[in-house]
From TrEMBL:
PROSITE patterns: HTH_LYSR. This is LysR family transcriptional regulator. Keywords: DNA-binding, Transcription, Transcription regulation. Signal peptide: none annotated. The keyword Transcription regulation applies. Transmembrane segments: none annotated.
Length: 289
C-alpha cells in the first residue's frame, strides 16, 4: 500500500466517479482504476460497488475511508514538519559554552538568533572548556563555544572572536601602581579559575611566556567562576586573572583596577563534531555569527 494509492482511493470515494477523480488528480482514468484494483487485489476486499453509471463505497470501503484519510493527514503533517525544520520555522538547538563565553559573549547572539527565528528553541549548557568540549563530543550539544585550547581529534575548532585575560586587583593593592615584573608575579597572592577552564589554561600559557610557572605562584584560592574570582580580588589582597569582558563592570565602577601587565589576546572558538550531521538550525546559527 502506497500513499499514492491512498490518495487515489480517497479522491474516488469523495467524488464517486473514476473519471472525475482522475481529472482532479491529473492522472489517466486507467491509472486511477489500476490503483484501486491493486488495493482491492492486495487485500481481497471490494472497496466500491457500481451503482448505475457511478460507483459507491462498499461496506469495506466505508470502513477503510476514515483510516485512509488519517494516514494521509499524518503524512501531510510529517511533510509540513520537515519543511518547517528546513525553513527554520521550527527546530531545536543546544549550545555548550565555557563560562566566559556563556556569560558575556553568547547570550546576546542567542537573543538575536531567537528574534530572527522564533520557531527554533535554544538551550545553553554552561561549564568550563573541558565540559563544553565533552558535550559536543557526546552529542549532548550541537555546537560548542570555548575560550580554552581543545585538542580532540573528533572535534573541529575555528576561531570566531578575540578576548583578553588580564590581571585585576583592588584599587589599593600594592601592585596597582606600577608595571609588573616576573618577581612581582611570584610575590603576589592569587585567586585563579579552576583547572580545566579556558581562562586557567590561557593564564598558564601567558605565565610560561614570561618565564613563570603556576607552581611558582602563591595560589590562595581556586574558584569555579569569573564572578567568584573577581569578588575575591575585590575583597582585597588577591590578584585575579580573568577575562576583560567579565571584569569590565567592576572596573567601570571603580571596584577593581587592571594591573599593568600586557597579556596577548586569546580566541573564542567554535567546536563542531567532524562526523555528526549539522542541522539547518546549527548551520544558520554559525552563518549569523
Amino acid at each position: 500500500m502506497t500513499l499514492e494509492q491512498l490518495r487515489i482511493f480517497v479522491e474516488v470515494a469523495q467524488r464517486g466517479h473514476m473519471t472525475r477523480a482522475a481529472e482532479a488528480l491529473h492522472l489517466t482514468q486507467s491509472a486511477v482504476s489500476a490503483a484501486v484494483a491493486a488495493l482491492e487485489g492486495r487485500y481481497g476486499a471490494r472497496l466500491f460497488d457500481r451503482v448505475g453509471r457511478g460507483i459507491a463505497l462498499s461496506a469495506a470501503g466505508q470502513a477503510f475511508l476514515p483510516e485512509a484519510k488519517a494516514v494521509l493527514s499524518q503524512a501531510e503533517a510529517a511533510v509540513a514538519a520537515l519543511e518547517d525544520v528546513t525553513a527554520l520555522r521550527r527546530g531545536h538547538l543546544t549550545l555548550a559554552a565555557s563560562q566566559t563565553v556563556a556569560s558575556y559573549w553568547l547570550p546576546g547572539r542567542m537573543a538575536r538568533f531567537a528574534q530572527a527565528h522564533p520557531g527554533v528553541s535554544l538551550r545553553m549548557i554552561a561549564g568550563n572548556t573541558a565540559q563544553a568540549a565533552e558535550a559536543v563530543l557526546t552529542g549532548a550539544a550541537d555546537l560548542g563555544f570555548v575560550e580554552g585550547l581543545v585538542e580532540v581529534a573528533a572535534l573541529s575548532r575555528a576561531a570566531i572572536a578575540l578576548d583578553r585575560v588580564s590581571l585585576y586587583a583592588a584599587p589599593d593593592h600594592p601592585l596597582a601602581a606600577a608595571p609588573l615584573r616576573p618577581q612581582d608575579l611570584r610575590a603576589a597572592v592569587w585567586v585563579l579559575r579552576e583547572v580545566g577552564s579556558g581562562t586557567r589554561s590561557h593564564f598558564e600559557q601567558v605565565m610560561a611566556g614570561v618565564g613563570v610557572t603556576v607552581r611558582e605562584l602563591s595560589v590562595r584560592l581556586e574558584l569555579p567562576s569569573n564572578e567568584a574570582a573577581l569578588a575575591a580580588a575585590e575583597a582585597g589582597g588577591l590578584v585575579a586573572a580573568v577575562s576583560d569582558l567579565a571584569a569590565a563592570p567592576l572596573v567601570a565602577a571603580g571596584r577593581l583596577v587592571r594591573l599593568a601587565f600586557d597579556a596577548p589576546e586569546r580566541a573564542f572558538a567554535l567546536l563542531t563534531h567532524r562526523q555528526r550531521h549539522r542541522s539547518r538550525a546549527a548551520m544558520a546559527f554559525i552563518a549569523e555569527l
